[in-house]
Design goal:
This protein has 108 residues and is mostly helical. It has 4 helices and no strands.
Length: 108
Amino acid sequence: IIVVMFIIIALVKMPKNEDSNHKVHLFLTLKRLISNKRYREGVVAQFFYVGAQIMCWTFIIHYGTRIFISQGMAEKDAEILSQQYNIIAMIIFCVSRFICTFILKYIK
């Protein structure tokens, strides 16, 4: 999928910027973004959301490893199996987000 996206990006030409006299100032742009309260709150919320998600998935791996070890499995095998379950959970999570976003078109 990534290779296909790289090929598409390489083949599709971006439109010319109509306003070529307009200069982009990084500092002014960042200052304007930081002065936007909703933007700041969104960045903070996203930071904590990603942190919580990583923490939960890490906990799942450790929890699964301990459960499998307590059932007599070798530690390395338990870690591998826990990681495989975690990857499956991530795939289900990602697919569910797309499906639920699609369903939201029909729910008001």
